[in-house]
Amino acid sequence: MKKNTLPALMVLLLAVFMYACKKDNTPIDPQSTYQKDVEKMIRFFKAHEPAVEKFTVDAGAGSTITLQNGTKITFGPNAFVKPGGAIVTGNVAVAARVFIKPSEMILADKPPVTDAGQILETFGEAFVTAEQNGQQLALNPQQKPPNVQVPIAGVNANGANREIPMWDGDTTVSTEYSGYNHENVYTTITQTYTIKKGMAWAQIPGSFGVGNAATTYFPLDNLGDWRNCDALYNVAAPKTTVLGYFGDKFNIKTGNNYSGQDPTELFFKVSGVNTLVKLYNPIFNPIAGKEGLLSYQNSVPIGANGTFLAMSTVNGKFYAEMRDVTITPDAGKNFMGITFNLQEVSEAQLLQLIQQMNTK
């Protein structure tokens, strides 16, 4: 009796088809997808953050090191001491980072904003360490602090030299249960949000740098801590709050992850001023299409011209938009709402947009 059997190839194709159907019907965990977007943004920042520059300094004789962006740091003779206080001799390994461009501040997540949300005009953010034979060193308190020379003019409105306050920086992450909705109305929520400021700067009493027509000088009074030579961006104009709406390009893991970088970010630079504002507060309880981020309350000068850079990772893709604006509150509102139209960009294009902020 003849058997009624399918050819082996048809059996194989049927099995593949059934497996494919089963695979297509498998539910996708949206939280897993969003978390992958978080990791994608973290990898982007890690790949492009400004590198730590390394030097060898003769501790006894002193030395001047020059960073790639033109910053010079001068260490005098006997500038370092060991943990017990003994003066260091011989070669010392110095590691330094000094940020003077908005792109560096974005990629390093070091926006120059005070711990109260005030905008700062920056003349250099510095982080320096020194070690010898694996032992971390400190600065010699009996010597003048090392001098940092930054290639940024620091004159006042009359063109005269001016004193510029020094600031101590701290990386902070806070937890919030209340904030503002899409209409800038105060509201509370049941879930918690982690607010990643990037950096909060507090003024150091009695410590100043000095700026002239070509250069700004400031003291490096400690190793292993961030120092910033900044002036408050004070303008006579009243201020308002800015809300940036991302719509479906807002990643819901923003404010809901404990990693070092949020997947949706928004920055603002005042035109012609060396500033950078990070809008890191999420809009709470938004209606559909109004998901996004907002500034500190009444912190952005009305009438100021500037540039926003909005960026996000959603479903494994980068999205971004750069937009020039004049800060103007919405009619009858106590805020300015901006609906961004983010477009897909490559990693290289996103990096290029960040670098363009240097010329805004």
Describe the protein in words.
Keywords: Signal. Residues 1-22 form the signal peptide. This protein has 360 residues and is mostly beta strands. It has one domain. The chain has helices spanning 8-24, 30-48, 102-107, 347-356; strands at 53-58, 63-66, 72-75, 80-81, 91-99, 120-132, 135-136, 138-139, 147-150, 162-170, 173-180, 186-196, 200-211, 216-219, 226-232, 239-245, 264-270, 277-278, 281-282, 292-294, 300-301, 305-314, 317-326, 335-339, 343-345. Strands 1, 2, 3, 5, 6, 7, 9, 10, 13, 14 and 15 form an eleven-stranded antiparallel beta sheet that branches. Strands 16, 19, 20, 21 and 24 form a five-stranded mixed beta sheet that branches. A five-stranded antiparallel beta sheet has the order 18-17-22-23-25. Strand 17 (264-270) and strand 18 form a beta hairpin.
Helices and strands in order, then pairings?
Layout: H1 8-24, H2 30-48, E1 53-58, E2 63-66, E3 72-75, E4 80-81, E5 91-99, H3 102-107, E6 120-132, E7 135-136, E8 138-139, E9 147-150, E10 162-170, E11 173-180, E12 186-196, E13 200-211, E14 216-219, E15 226-232, E16 239-245, E17 264-270, E18 277-278, E19 281-282, E20 292-294, E21 300-301, E22 305-314, E23 317-326, E24 335-339, E25 343-345, H4 347-356
Parallel strand pairs: 16-24
Antiparallel strand pairs: 1-5, 2-3, 3-9, 4-8, 5-6, 6-7, 6-15, 9-14, 10-13, 10-15, 11-12, 13-14, 16-20, 16-21, 17-18, 17-22, 19-20, 22-23, 23-25
